[in-house]
């Protein structure tokens, strides 16, 4: 373990640096370098479309430099954390770029997170500056941060984006200082070490508390370079991004890829399928990625309107179980588009994706794609022993885009083996051609529309209810979202609990709303094994059966 400028210990060693530098996977090119080169060679080229706002690479670079200077004037030092809790707005691109220029760590926070999650993340990350809206959808972020701020001694500044309020500084004010020569101003920064921590992303864990994932400039650029090679992406491509930029996929392909490939990104901050199709057609989008619900609704809308979206040539789908028939239908409705499944996670962004040239296109529907840029093993889920090709087991991987580790060093002990392979906790099989198929999860995580939900986090709150004797939360199949939480509860003698009371109680904990179980099932007792552990696979099977019966009766 080595100490990063951010203060976190990482798994980075001289041997790892030498290995991936020699292989050419780690180039040392940071986002700051790349953005400066785009601004120098193609300053007028459009980089981002965000509603009525259109910005060029030159404009983005200048705004990034201005914000980096403002952060430095506020006393931020390289390695300190800048957080943003924003929808898919172009300001997120500016914040991410400013962090790269100044050598700060960027921490995106999912917009739907509420007090419980945001408080943990800001404390754990020691965030210095937080960018957020005043309100978006049903969340008043100012009210939330007012509740949390007394317990956040590291937080220096809260900056409001797009809607100033008295007592708060506005994002526009931080960009107001004159910057007549952005290239000279950028040169005044020391320049970030490409092996330093650049991104801090929190992901739900099976133990309840989110885990902080640490990525460097090099690990992120390794993924981006691989995507560019695999997908043959370049300046003539246009990426359409409705997936949240606060998730690893949206972050990489909306905030990083445009600078690396010189391409335009079209952002969408609130998914509406009709508007999404209009945007894709208007801007001639060629590439997009999204979770299963996005693809299902996109295909249905295109078919309903009798369109084909001829410019769209690639759509990657993942983040939640993807039925083979969804990919097959997409290929029929979008004849010019290679639609495929992919597999990855925040810790290892893209382990497998798509179909190699010359291979049967059906593999894009029946598998999670060809392994690329990773060294994958399938091991026995109990012993960790490697298994032969074609045998199912736990997916473990090692490669240039795997994270540097978690913020909590102890979390790395279970996540990595002595050879440096990351244990994903997912189950799968690799065929003789190198195609990976995910078959299940060792973890109990619920994946709702691409969002990872920790059952234990919900269970911990339920157990605080005076009527609850024992509770277990599992995944229930859902037609649109893939999965949704279902709560099985044993109430105490003489007590009662109904669905409305359960919802009201969980809302008082200020959990994100997608974590509130959509079903409540009262049982006399939960199934246990001999050691007293709840048999969640039994409850999952019951939830699947209940969902299937409900669908048949609908």
Tell me the helix content. 25-40%
* Averaged pLDDT: 92
Structural class: alpha/beta
Rough shape? globular
Structure notes:
There is one protein chain. The protein is an alpha/beta fold. Helices cover 34% and strands 24% of the residues. It has a domain at 446-553: GMP Synthetase, Chain A, domain 3 (2-Layer Sandwich), CATH 3.30.300.30. The protein contains 18 helices and 29 strands. Strands 4-3-15-14-16-17-18-19 form an 8-stranded mixed sheet, sandwiched between helices. Strands 6-5-7-10-11 form a 5-stranded parallel sheet, with helices on both faces. Belongs to the ATP-dependent AMP-binding enzyme family.
Write the layout of secondary structure elements.
Blueprint: E1 2-3, E2 9-10, H1 14-22, H2 31-41, E3 46-50, E4 53-56, H3 57-73, E5 81-84, H4 90-102, E6 105-108, H5 115-125, E7 129-132, E8 135-136, E9 139-140, H6 141-148, E10 157-160, E11 169-170, H7 171-174, H8 182-187, E12 197-203, E13 211-216, H9 217-231, E14 238-241, H10 248-261, E15 264-267, H11 273-282, E16 287-290, H12 292-305, E17 314-317, H13 324-333, E18 338-343, E19 352-353, H14 363-366, E20 375-379, E21 393-398, E22 405-406, H15 409-415, E23 422-430, E24 436-441, E25 446-448, E26 451-453, H16 455-462, E27 468-478, E28 482-491, H17 499-508, E29 519-522, H18 536-553
Parallel strand pairs: 3-15, 5-6, 5-7, 7-10, 10-11, 14-15, 14-16, 16-17, 17-18, 28-29
Antiparallel strand pairs: 1-2, 3-4, 8-9, 12-13, 13-22, 18-19, 20-21, 21-23, 23-24, 25-26, 27-28
Helix pairs in contact: 2-3, 2-4, 3-4, 9-10, 11-12, 12-13
Short description:
This protein is α/β, with parallel strands linked by helices. Helices cover 34% and strands 24% of the residues. Keywords: Ligase.
